């Protein structure tokens, strides 16, 4: 069974609906607004453009802040793009954010193509050694 399967299915549905309704050609900001509206309609809780801590992979200490497009239900990071072709660097960046944050699921959606491209990535917290280091230090 997939982690947060029902939630990620609903998120994918929102992305597909926005892509079908708006098509390619808009700026990323348009898709952000449309996704926010669609998430509200679908009664999916989210925070738009939250500040999330990027932690050191060695110590678990905060080393930076990242502002993703959305954090959904306090467990899924959703990043949006509006480019003709999704670059591998965008996928790798999402993976790196998952490695260095408390979030385990990331979705990257590209609205710049005829049909939305959706990439789902997972990096579970049990694979993040820095989390146990940070926990030990806080005791």
Quick rundown:
The chain is an alpha+beta fold. Helices cover 39% and strands 24% of the residues.
Oligomer: single chain
Please give the number of β-strands. Answer: 7
**Sheet with most strands: strand arrangement:** 1-4-5-6-7
Kindly report the average pLDDT value: 94
What is the count of DSSP helices, taking H or I runs of 4+ residues? 4
Task: Give the SSE string.
Answer: HHEEEEEHEEH
* Shape, principal axes of CA atoms: globular
Radius of gyration (CA) equals: 15 Å
Distance between the first and last residues' Cα: 34 Å
Beta-strand residue fraction? 15-25%
Q: Portion of residues in helices?
A: 25-40%
Structural class: alpha+beta
Low-confidence stretches at least 5 residues in length (pLDDT < 50)? none
Largest sheet, strands/sense/barrel: 5 strands, mixed
Question: What would you say this structure looks like, in words?
Answer:
The strands form two sheets. This protein has a five-stranded mixed β-sheet with strand order 1-4-5-6-7, with helices on both faces. The longest helix has 18 residues. Helices cover 39% and strands 24% of the residues. The model has no long low-confidence stretch (mean pLDDT 94).
Key attributes of the depicted protein:
139 residues; alpha+beta; two-stranded antiparallel ribbon; 39% helix
Secondary structure blueprint with pairings:
Blueprint: H1 5-22, H2 28-41, E1 46-48, E2 52-55, E3 62-66, E4 70-72, E5 76-81, H3 88-99, E6 105-110, E7 117-122, H4 129-138
Parallel strand pairs: 5-6
Antiparallel strand pairs: 1-4, 2-3, 4-5, 6-7
Helix pairs in contact: 1-2
